[in-house]
Amino acid sequence: MTRPTTPRSAFALALAVALALPIGLARPTTVDAATTYRFVSTTGSDSWSGSSTRPWRTIQHAVDYSPAGTVIGVRTGKYPHFVVRRSGLTVRPAGTSSVTVYGSKYVVRFLGVTSGTVRGLFITGAPYQYGSGVRVEASSNVLIDGNTIYGNHSFGIKVKDSTNTLIRGNRIYKNDTGIELAGAVAGTNIYGNQIHHNDRMVDSGRGGNGIVFAVTTGAVSVQANKLWTNRARHTNGVGYDGGAFEVYGSSDLLIRNNSVWDNNNVMETGTDGVHPCARITFTRNLIRGRSTVAGETKGLILRCAADSLIAHNTIDTIDDFAFYVEQSSAYAGSIDGLRIADNIVYLTRAYSLKTGLPSTISIDHDLIRPGGTAPYATRVAYIEGLPDPTIETLTELRIVSPYGDHSLQADPRFVDRNNGVYTLRSDSPAIDHGVQVTSDPYSGAAPDIGKYEYVP
Questions:
Q1: pTM of the prediction?
Q2: How far apart are CA 322 and CA 305, in angstroms?
Q3: Is the pLDDT of residue 10 over 60?
Q4: What distance in Å separates the CA atoms of residue 45 and residue 38, rounded to the nearest whole number?
């Protein structure tokens, strides 16, 4: 096999940039000498000046009285909740201080600002239903950076009708749901976070999610995050809810280059019949591992995904299916124009489908390797509505459906799967067997199947 057609070093650099850098991500700026500083300490007083030697007592006083451009350095201790209504402020620990902010329905709230930053805090203890550790509301250009956000009811972070929010490098765990976006949220970037063990129900109908899109409008980017063990026991005690991503009546989502394992679902889509789910791009994600709760890891549930692309993902050993596609349930919407291509599905049933799907959907150019011990993993597909719905091989799938004409049933030959290395060996049948469905650079005659393009 002759590879690559692009010079190796140039191709590797281009691929690294394409896979690693989020689209539209704002870069942090350095603080210059002219920046105003104010300080807060548990031993201070709100009647003092806020200087290093005469610090204020509360963060709320600091954000109410500091001018735009101020960095508010908070010294070690526990502080009550605060609301930021003035733009251009940064709240962060002073030096290496450990700062915990706690309590109230919203522990940290940005309301009606055009910029602002909260960085490096421990944010916890929102006790009320539909509350959150951080709430960004009617605002723009807010940065939530490097915080530890945990133990909040209902959301770790909630962004409501706010644009250009950057949620970066946070650890978000033990909330009901990690992050929820709602309303007009164009330009939101969720990048490089650890989102895990969000494990309680928000209410009787939802909970246990990593990231939720709830009737959003505007383009959103979700990249380079790690999401694991997000699931919640139903309030009736029967079964589980939740997962890594939940899309409800939301469109224009880029979900890319994330690592996902041991969640209840990888992604579930649905709608109320009014708000569509469309233009969802789910690419270059690594999905792996069976559930720590028997039988409770499922793949992508696609019941509302018009003009969407699910491509170049690597999926290894989850319990039920990689892709479930239907449009006849209570939460179903249009799936016209849905395309599933260039995915590796390893030791997992690839497809669970219903008959009568639109002729506009395409499922092809995947590499499937049945086998293993997960339920149904020895089968390629299940097609509800057929006299014999169990599909054992890719050849049989081609006979009974319009799908998989260019797909492969083979071992993808990972470099070192046992140690989590899912790049391709030089003899992998996935090399050059994909179809170009993204603008990502590739080397050789065609793109490779799976998350990783082979680079010698």
A1: 0.93
A2: 16
A3: no
A4: 13
